[in-house]
Amino acid sequence: MDNLDHRILTLLQENARRNNDELATMLDIEVDVLAKRIESMESSGVILKYTALVNEQVMDDVSQPIRALVELNISPERKTGYDAIASKIYQYPSVKAHFLVSGQFDYLVIVEGSTHQEIAHFVFDKLATLDNVTGTNSHFVLKKYKENGVVFEGAANDKRVAVMP
Amino acid sequence: MTADFSQYLESIPSSGIREFFDLVMSSDDIISLGVGEPDFTTPWSIRSEAIYALEKGYTTYTSNEGLLSLRESISNYCQSEWGINYSPETEILVTNGVSEGADIVLRALLNPGDSVILPQPAYVCYDPLIKLTGASVIPVDTSKSNFVPDPKAIESAITDSTKAIVLCYPNNPTGQSIPRDVLEAIAKVAKANDLWVLSDEIYGELSYETEFVSIASLPGMKERTILFNGFSKAYAMTGFRIGYICGPESLISRATKIHQYSALCASIFSQMAAAEALKNGRKAMEEMRQSYQQRRNLFVEGCRKMGLETAMPAGAFYCFPSVKSTGLDSVTFAKRLVKEARVAVVPGPVFGDGGEGHIRCCYAASTEELKEALIRMEVFVKGLK
After folding, report:
1. Is this prediction's ipTM beyond 0.95?
2. Which element (helix H / strand E) includes B199?
């Protein structure tokens, strides 16, 4: 990874739908150089996937998913430590993100479901009952302000004077 | 009342471009590449410092020169950025942007009958501000030398009354900079003819492939150079109205004398925000610069593809395509572009000699807007043929 790779990543993270011609022009490099760089980052796993950042809060249907941030306390296993237990958790499709963190708890897990009950059942039945889980603490998300560097509401409109020498 | 006003002011014609600006301002649904400022909002850490200052009750005057702590930061910045050593006590004045700095320096320096060399195209304030002092402008058209001032042309424009050269590089509107060897040649001319150099370096930090060189950093030039800079462009702080001038004590003290009567001081919370910009704003500034550079590449290529000859800008966030191939003059092109393609640009002649045949496009707009503007411009240009 060099500076060019990082600049490519920054542009793709801003907008993954930019085509290669546009990216190559912006970075002042040849298109095939760019294509090779992206391919290499894809095959080495630096770029895992291209997804959409969705604001569920403005969906006009009632099927908005509900999210909870779940803190888990773990007693780690000898030899395999935290990773083996983690794999028993992150394989559930309703687990959208899973971090090992420092501080008062060990895992921070982001769980998604269609109702509060569904998430509650998942936490009680699937997570709290794991042998190594010694405690849980769930926080339901009430509102999303910012994700992946994008502010979800009240984005600034252009306040500039349209013409100025 | 008798209509007897300042004769110097009367000698300045009212801007012929007002009609065009009114046309843009009254048009809806346009993409404007006519703006003259960053599209970024001031970085939050800088804004929050201004808010904090207000919350803490910093609502007073400061010393005329500006907060000493800010001048000390500016002094360190000039040293680390451009290798120039200015005394915070005697060689730096905090102003309400470069515009005020230009006004008070010109008034401190010039007498009626003096003349000033002004390479053009250049930012619009210098010509009228020079004339308001009773001095005259000697324009030097840079369009023949790729919009980089030609030291020989400057030298041959010097008369007995010439007192100073004004340089505005990286340049608004062209985006061009002066390469080091040319700058050295200009410095030589200034020294040989004992001229002041007024160097407006407001876009200095926004230099792309080549590092910006301040003429004040060249040997023997600090003593005859007034450096103008500020926070508006590099730190996206246009609305804060905060800048500074650096130069020899003899001139700074005299400019301060005017400043203390006409402005008193720059706004205290803008000064505190500016100090935060210098302390913690560097990363944000560099990210903005990189973003401008990428959008420059995109926009310049688009202009070239539609057949408009466009020099690659070295800095600032403007490019200056030629519209000569369309057969239209700059103002006609710009007016029709607003009406027929809903894209606003600024006609080159607004910026003085050498601007005819060009339009200034500001690429501080989102890539989506730039791409849409390019599509609209291409349809318009193709339709002319």
Report:
1. no
2. strand B196-200
Count of positions (residues) in chain A: 165
Q: Considering its fold, how many domains does chain B have in total?
A: 2
Q: Tell me the residues of B at the A interface, defined by beta carbons under 8 Å apart.
A: 17, 20-21, 24-25, 30, 32, 34-37, 39, 41, 123-124, 172-173, 290, 294-295, 297-298, 301, 344, 346, 350-351, 367, 371
DSSP letter for each residue of A101-159: -SSS-SEEEEEEESSHHHHHHIIIIIITTSTTEEEEEEEE-----EETTEE-S-PPP--
Q: Which of B379, B315, B324 is nearest to B347 (CA)?
A: B324
Is B1 part of a structural domain of the chain? no
Q: Say yes or no for a CB contact (<8 Å) between B36 and A164.
A: yes
Q: Are B168 and B129 in contact (CB under 8 A)?
A: no
d(CA B228, CA B244): 6
| CB B34 within 8 Å of CB A163 | yes
* Residue A150 in domain: no
Of A27, A156, A164, the CB nearest to B41: A156
- How far B356 CA lies from chain A's nearest CA (Å)? 15
Mean pLDDT, chain B, as a whole number? 97
Q: Could you give the dihedral angle defined by the CA atoms of residues B320, B325, B329 and B335, in that order, rounded to the nearest 10 degrees?
A: -70
Tell me what pLDDT residue A59 has.
Answer: 86
Does A17 lie in the same domain as A73? no
Instruction: Identify which of A18, A28, A161 has the shortest CB distance to residue B35.
Output: A161
B126 to chain A nearest CA, in Å? 12
Please tell me the pTM assigned to this model. Answer: 0.94
Question: What confidence tens digit (pLDDT) does each residue in A87-146 have?
Answer: 999 999 999 999 999 999 999 999 999 999 999 999 999 999 999 999 999 999 999 999
Of the three residues B256, B280, B304, the one that is the final residue of a domain is: B280
Residues from A in contact with B at Cβ < 8 Å: 7, 11, 15, 18, 22, 25-28, 156, 158, 160-165
- Within a domain: A37: yes
pLDDT < 50 positions in chain B? none
Residues of B in contact with A156 (CB under 8 A): 41
CB B38 within 8 A of CB B238: yes
